[in-house]
TrEMBL record, chains A, B:
It holds the Pfam family ROK. Belongs to the ROK (NagC/XylR) family. InterPro entries: ATPase_NBD, ROK, WH-like_DNA-bd_sf, WH_DNA-bd_sf. It comes from Yinghuangia aomiensis. PANTHER family: BIFUNCTIONAL UDP-N-ACETYLGLUCOSAMINE 2-EPIMERASE_N-ACETYLMANNOSAMINE KINASE (PTHR18964:SF149), ROK (REPRESSOR, ORF, KINASE) FAMILY (PTHR18964). This is ROK family transcriptional regulator. Signal peptide: none annotated.
Amino acid sequence: MRAAPTQEDIRRQNLGALLRRVHLLGPVSRAQLTAGMGLNRSTIGALTADLTEAGLVLEELPRDTAGRGRPSLVVRARSQSVYALAFAVGADRLVAARVGLGGVVLDRREVERPGGTFGLDEGVERLADFAAHLTASAEPQALCVGAAAAVPAAIARDDGPAHARSGTERYGALLADAAGRTVRVGTTGNLGALGEHTRGAAAGHDDAVYLHGDGGISGGIIARGRPLTGADGFAAELGHMVVNPHGRRCWCGSTGCWETEIGEPTLLTRAGHPGTRGRDAVHRAVDAAARGDKDAEEGLRSVGDWLGIGVANLVNILNPRIVVFGGTLRLVYPAAAAQVRSRINRTTLPTHREHLRLRTALLADDAPLHGAAELAFTELFENPLEFTSA
Amino acid sequence: MRAAPTQEDIRRQNLGALLRRVHLLGPVSRAQLTAGMGLNRSTIGALTADLTEAGLVLEELPRDTAGRGRPSLVVRARSQSVYALAFAVGADRLVAARVGLGGVVLDRREVERPGGTFGLDEGVERLADFAAHLTASAEPQALCVGAAAAVPAAIARDDGPAHARSGTERYGALLADAAGRTVRVGTTGNLGALGEHTRGAAAGHDDAVYLHGDGGISGGIIARGRPLTGADGFAAELGHMVVNPHGRRCWCGSTGCWETEIGEPTLLTRAGHPGTRGRDAVHRAVDAAARGDKDAEEGLRSVGDWLGIGVANLVNILNPRIVVFGGTLRLVYPAAAAQVRSRINRTTLPTHREHLRLRTALLADDAPLHGAAELAFTELFENPLEFTSA
């Protein structure tokens, strides 16, 4: 029941859609844009002229023009001069990157922080420092169109249950203060989903689930091509789905959360490496299982079984086309795929699993970082010419 | 990245949007339409003129015009002469109705079928017979714009696991053959969600979950104002979410499905009424608990606890604004609300439950029937003038 768009709305939408298309697909000819967007040639020409004048794209002759008659100009994102700042706060490392329009990582800074738990202030100064260096290393006339950070939802609980998840926003506010610019925030799971959906394993799939292991478990859901936010923006709290009501107590106060059965501490304990932590420890446990270590094999089988139970529930509830495993689950899933598949086969209907794909994250550990970059680019696509007149 | 709409697309969209607005909100003045749709007065005038000429709406002076200067014409749906056929197949009854534009039930036929299990053919002839009578009782010039049926997903399994859920479509095909017209189908849960979202307890809420008890448990999800379908249209298979992996075997082949803990047989057994079935039996169990019967109280407490575990999972995953209990859960939820709330409080974060509402279905047992009517009206709103030229 929305009002009809004005001509100016339509032009702005078309500019954003064209720019986003170039951002997602890479260099693309005017002819391809004309066909793909269902607009006529002169409209495409006018739109690309506006975006070129604004310094957001450039047009050039295709490299290979042999024997094809008059070639269609190719539109390319000006990646070096139009960029976003992306941050990813992980359990054992902090990352900041300058990501050019088109999704290319132009510069990247990273610091390990093994074994830490999160405090709100922790890492903020370091990330702000990274941001300053990243900005300074850009071309002199380069335009920063936004900044965003992927932050664990678990930070939320620092300030107590009354404001759970608000910690994510507070982290963003602190980072914004330190960096001297607006910083949007999303959870690691939600932005990991956005990253993999934009240019990873879930690209082209309108219905997807992303699961991220990093100490605990976070997740993100793509439904009908867009992130599922829920009523308050808190959807996809997947680690706290109860799968074992008779199981162990979770730090969140509940009992039998998925995270208590498949999270890092449980995996490492069951695999015979109690007291260790972090990605390297998970790597060692998976390696041990691959070498035939019985404890490690048994631990991975058990975790795989619980991983399968939860994935099967999500398949029954959401009917996704693809489930993507990121973070430490990128190591765990391949080692436990048989258990996961077996549980899915027992617990879902054939209709739900017939076309289901299970994949590891294509963007590897950087799915949340790329998702943060996409979030930072959002405003540019809403109104591309707004940015350049500023 | 969709193509820009043409002027003709926009006009068709505006006609559909205006008609749908009148359908949902009831009689509405041209002035309200102008304000609500963000279009100017002359456009609204032209659109209502088209719809009036097509026989879909009529315009009249408001009843109370005292002291308000020149009154704005009121646009009203022609409910008696524009209608849809809606069917609902339940565990213990079959319903067919003629539903007028605007959502009013004009005529309705119902037959009890206590204690039956479903076969594909069962009830089809009876519903087709109802449809013939409903059509014959309409005004001579009345226009039927579509037909749809709410069908249990469980019918699906009649023809074996390889085609689970396809049974829903097959039921629709058989009904279409018998009734001599196209019949769209949806599951009881999905269409119950659509009904409650359109004109029930979930109206105005963009993120909602509907749960329907009728022997087993089915459900529907509304996300961002629209039904969540998933990749293949099979989302919201909520009854088969595993909540108790160490629990009992489900008829679906899995173990510990939500349905095994909160479905009718479990409730009635735990409440001290083993061997009974149907809505009346659930009613008796709930009444017994209200009168202080210890077995019944204990049974409802236990089912309430498991109901709460599953609802809490859905709250964590989907962050809905409202959860609506329909079918027999309309009786069970109020009797077990304390257990449900307690589980939600233990298992979800405050952010997720702060604004959460738990409600029984406003459309009572007819939520799926109203949802079927909405589904049947869909095509009309996509292109209102198409129908009248036929």
